[in-house]
Amino acid sequence: MLTQLGIFLRKLRLDCGEIMKEMATKLDVSSSFLSAVENGKKKMPESWYDTIVNLYNLDKEKQDELMTAIEESQKSLEINLEDLSKEKKRLAFSFARELENMNKEEVDKMKIFFKKDGE
C-alpha cells in the first residue's frame, strides 16, 4: 500500500514525465528500494529531502507538502542519544512516554514552546 510519501513521489514523477527507474537513478538507489520506500517497507534516507527539493526545484509549498508526507508516512522516529547527558536522555524518554496521553491543548502548548523563530 502506498504511503503519503509514496503518493507524493509518484505524483512528482508523473508530473515530471519520469518512470520509477529514472527517479531511482537520480536518487542513486535501485527501483526496488524506491518502491519499498513508497510502500512503507523501507525508511526513506534523511538525505532524500534535500536531494528531492534540489533535483525537482520544489517551491516552498511543495517542500511543505513533501515534509508533511514524510511525517505522515513515518512509523517511528530514531533519535541519537549518544552525546546527551543522563538527565537529557531521561527527559527524552519521559516525553516519548507522555506523547500518547497528551490532549490537544497540551500538544498546542508544546508546539508553541518548541516553535523556532520565524516559523
TrEMBL record:
<dbReference type="GO" id="GO:0003677">
    <property type="term" value="F:DNA binding"/>
</dbReference>
<dbReference type="InterPro" id="IPR010982">
    <property type="entry name" value="Lambda_DNA-bd_dom_sf"/>
</dbReference>
<dbReference type="InterPro" id="IPR001387">
    <property type="entry name" value="Cro/C1-type_HTH"/>
</dbReference>
<dbReference type="Pfam" id="PF13560">
    <property type="entry name" value="HTH_31"/>
</dbReference>
<protein>
    <submittedName>
        <fullName>Toxin-antitoxin system, antitoxin component, Xre family</fullName>
    </submittedName>
</protein>
